[in-house]
Design brief:
Elements (H helix, E strand, L loop, with lengths): L1 E2 L3 H12 L7 E3 L10 E4 L2 E4 L5 E2 L3 H9 L6 E3 L7 E5 L2 E4 L4 E2 L2 E2 L2 H6 L5 H11 L12 H8 L2 H16 L8 H4 L1 H9 L2 H14 L8 E4 L4 H11 L3 E3 L1 E9 L2 E10 L2 E11 L2 E3 L3 H8 L4 H8 L3 E11 L10 E3 L10 E4 H4 L9 E8 L11 H16 L7 E12 L5 H12 L5 E3 L9 H16 L2
Parallel strand pairs: 1-2, 1-16, 2-12, 7-18, 16-22
Antiparallel strand pairs: 3-4, 5-11, 6-11, 7-8, 9-10, 13-14, 14-15, 17-20, 17-21, 18-19, 19-20
Helix pairs in contact: 1-10, 1-16, 2-16, 5-6, 11-12, 12-15
Length: 460
């Protein structure tokens, strides 16, 4: 049995089929599979209400799309036009080319940039030539950057980058859990020098670099539809699990199954020998409280942030800056977290002469944004786009999607929580967890977690 038909749960089911195991069901409380991956339509264009792409360098999502026969629909980001802008001191300033989340990989590009002050640049230069103290095993991203590169680099560059990817607060997020590769570099000495050397090694290798992002021409919902077609009647939507208890050597699930004909639903009792919970950690905690209070406590300790997306269509296209989009540092008196220009990032997704913007609000720093009405949000985004982009033209169409408690936050102590969760799971043969709460928040990470959960249960 799999509970949760987001990408992790669907991937778990797909892996079971690949391993020749067909006798399972997949229960989903919503009326559709896919979770936060949701493709809609706006003014005749495909829009992403959740994530719009996956990282090309993590192969699981790319390989899955090809296995599902979607290879011809794969579209890469237009990296020739890749540039990120940061709003600082009432104007747009370009993120220096080669910046790698925490530090620059191209010192000369940083020196020419007007994004940071000369004192901040000097601080980075000192870090480049300094044998820095290795960070503690449990430290936040913010603590490392503030100690190594200074508060200005943290607030102006690192904080908005982290917020754009993780929706989190740099002073809360765990360095090792969120950015393990960069954490390892920081332990070897200068972070900026390590990134510079890594870039030189990549440049010395033959062949073109991979595009940063990949998506599907008509939206990531195509991957969900293809997975659902493979799993077919095994998926039961409108089936909410209310309670999980132990039953012999297996598990007893109490479920409410609703449908258009019976919206109030009917209560079902389902027994299974093996169980994958592909749910947010807080949802899994609620279901496991009676089965194992300690496991539930550790799952509930993983915090979540909420987010919302506003898709805006323009016809005709207004004049816009080049590049993929804009990030907003937390100290700039704007509520917007980020804005993506889709026709620059994925030109194949937007017809010529039109424009499509994706604007983000919420995150760990602004959970109250989700309480704004649609009218308030549209007024806010219109005013802020006028300030940031000089965009006076109103959108021809708009779509808002709220995602409460959807983004797992790998805060300081995350590694210890995972160890305690694994220790508790060891006492429940036939129970596995999957999703974005554990070892990666990206689409490929979730797919891998689903595969791993399926393989774990096939060993019992």
């Amino acid at each position: 049995m799999i509970v949760g038909a987001g990408i992790a749960g669907l991937a778990a089911g797909f892996e079971l089929l690949r391993q020749g195991y067909e006798n399972f069901r997949l229960l989903e409380a919503a009326d559709r599979p896919g979770g936060v991956i949701s493709t809609g339509q706006l003014a005749g264009m495909a829009i992403e209400e959740g994530p719009d792409s996956f990282l090309t360098e993590k192969p699981a999502a790319l390989q899955l799309c090809r296995e599902l026969g979607l290879g011809e629909q794969l579209v890469c980001s237009n990296d020739a036009a890749r540039r990120t802008w940061i709003w600082r001191k009432h104007r747009l300033r370009a993120l220096p080319e080669g910046w790698q989340m925490l530090a620059p990989a191209r010192p000369l590009a940083l020196w020419r940039s007007d994004l940071l002050s000369w004192s901040a640049k000097a601080r980075i230069a000192r870090e480049f030539f300094t044998l820095s103290r290795a960070p503690a095993s449990e430290t936040s991203v913010g603590a490392l950057v503030r100690a190594r590169l200074g508060a200005e680099v943290l607030e102006v560059v690192v904080a908005p980058l982290l917020s754009g990817v993780y929706g989190g607060d740099a002073d809360e997020l765990s360095l090792d859990a969120v950015l393990p590769r960069l954490a390892q570099m920081a332990r070897q000495g200068s972070l900026s020098r390590s990134l510079w050397r890594a870039r030189r090694r990549r440049s010395a290798k033959a062949g073109a670099s991979l595009p940063l992002f990949t998506t599907l021409r008509n939206g990531l919902g195509g991957c969900i539809a293809a997975l659902a077609a493979r799993l077919d009647s095994r998926i039961e939507t409108g089936c909410r699990v209310l309670r999980i208890t132990k039953s012999g050597e297996g598990f007893q699930l109490e479920c409410r199954h609703s449908s258009p004909e019976s919206p109030a639903g009917r209560i079902l009792q389902i027994h299974c020998c093996r169980l994958i919970l592909a749910l947010p950690a807080w949802a899994a905690a609620e279901l496991l409280q009676e089965l194992d209070g300690e496991l539930a406590l550790q799952l509930a300790a993983i915090p979540y942030a909420s987010s919302l997306t506003v898709n805006l269509a323009y016809s005709p296209a207004p004049p816009l800056h080049d590049g993929f989009g804009v990030l907003i540092p937390p100290g700039e008196s704007l509520r917007m977290r980020a804005c993506t220009v889709i026709q620059h990032k994925f030109p194949a997704r937007v017809p010529p002469g039109r424009a499509l913007l994706r604007v983000f609000y919420g995150g760990a720093r602004d959970p109250e944004a989700l309480a704004l009405s649609d009218e308030q949000l549209l007024a806010l985004v219109t005013a802020e786009l006028r300030t940031i982009l000089g965009l006076k033209q109103p959108p021809s169409a708009a779509h808002i999607r709220r995602w409460p408690r959807a983004m797992a936050q790998y805060t300081v102590g995350h590694a210890g929580r995972l160890q305690r969760i694994q220790a508790a799971l060891a006492g429940h043969a036939g129970l596995a967890l999957a999703g974005n709460a554990y070892r990666g928040i990206g689409i490929s990470d979730c797919i891998e977690s689903g595969y791993a959960a399926a393989r774990t249960l096939l060993q019992f």
